[in-house]
Design a protein that fits this description.
Distance between the termini of chain B: 47 Å
Radius of gyration of chain B: 13 Å
Structural class of chain B: mainly alpha
Mean pLDDT of chain B: 95
Low-confidence stretches of chain B: none
Helix content of chain A: 55-70%
Number of strands of chain A: 0
Distance between the termini of chain A: 47 Å
Shape of chain B: elongated
Number of domains of chain B: 1
Largest interface: A-B, 38 and 30 residues
Radius of gyration of chain A: 20 Å
Helix content of chain B: over 70%
Number of helices of chain B: 3
Oligomer: heterodimer
Number of strands of chain B: 0
Strand content of chain B: under 5%
Strand content of chain A: under 5%
Order of helices and strands of chain B: HHH
């Protein structure tokens, strides 16, 4: 939909209004408030400088998010160079945690429970606090891959290329992230609310 | 052959990231018919994806 005064440049005030959204997005992916703040600041600056390039074909938010994604990737690359997130022990303990969910015959040790009407949880601010806690508890390496997939909407191929990992490795990490998040949500929220 | 829960959970998770082959889909559906735990897991995967988007996009 076109705005009434359809000037196609992005207005500084409109750009500034997206700050909170961009910050939440960056924090989910980077997990480091200072880095997230930097990435957003760089995005806003780039957007203000390049406001004339905003065509108005997509929403302002979509345009800004596109810039932010590049800034986040830059930060991930820089952070990866300074402090690589490789840890064999980490990997092993995560694999063990996942294995522990299944019995020797490879069936669930404990069946995933029926979550009732989970959509109702989405309207409850206490649920979001639990959700945030569970997302933050994901191990760093796993979380990075998972957020690239779910928050940045990158395909597995894109993630593999960026992190130089195999597709299988990527799927394993995504699966672990989901199993871990699921366990945590059931423990922190859905198990409790049904008692 | 009907896959185990562990393998089914992997396939369900991967179905969020790639398109499964026809044999994979068939085995998956067979297992889901018989297993309430994996059916719950499947719904929870969808819920978690939707919740993450909602968390990201809420104002």
């Amino acid at each position: 939909m076109l705005a009434e005064n359809s000037s196609s440049t992005a207005h500084p005030a409109a750009i500034e209004r997206e700050r909170a959204y961009l910050l939440r997005y960056a924090r989910l992916q980077l997990r480091n408030p200072a880095q997230a703040e930097d990435a957003v600041q760089e995005t806003l600056l780039a957007a203000l400088e390049g406001a004339a390039r905003f065509s108005g074909k997509s929403s302002l938010r979509t345009w800004l998010t596109g810039i932010l994604k590049h800034k986040i990737i830059d930060h991930l690359r820089r952070a990866g160079r300074e402090q690589p997130l490789t840890g064999i022990d980490d990997d092993r303990s995560e694999a063990e945690a996942v294995d522990a969910l299944f019995a020797r015959d490879c069936h669930w040790r404990e069946f995933p429970a029926q979550w009732g009407n989970p959509d109702a949880a989405l309207e409850d601010s206490r649920f979001w606090a639990a959700f945030e806690l569970c997302a933050q508890r994901l191990p760093a390496r796993t979380a990075r891959v998972f957020m690239m997939r779910e928050i940045m909407d990158m395909t597995t191929e894109e993630i593999c290329k960026e992190l130089d990992i195999t597709a299988t490795n990527c799927w394993v990490m995504l699966h672990r992230a989901r199993l871990t998040l699921r366990e945590c949500l059931e423990l922190q929220w859905f198990g409790k609310s049904e008692k | 052959m009907i896959p185990t829960c562990k393998h089914t959970a992997e396939l369900l998770s991967q179905s969020q990231d790639r398109s499964l082959s026809l044999p994979e889909k068939t085995r998956l559906h067979l297992h889901l018919l018989l297993c309430v735990g994996c059916r719950n897991f499947n719904r929870q995967l969808e819920f978690m994806r939707a919740a993450l988007r909602r968390y990201r996009d809420r104002d």
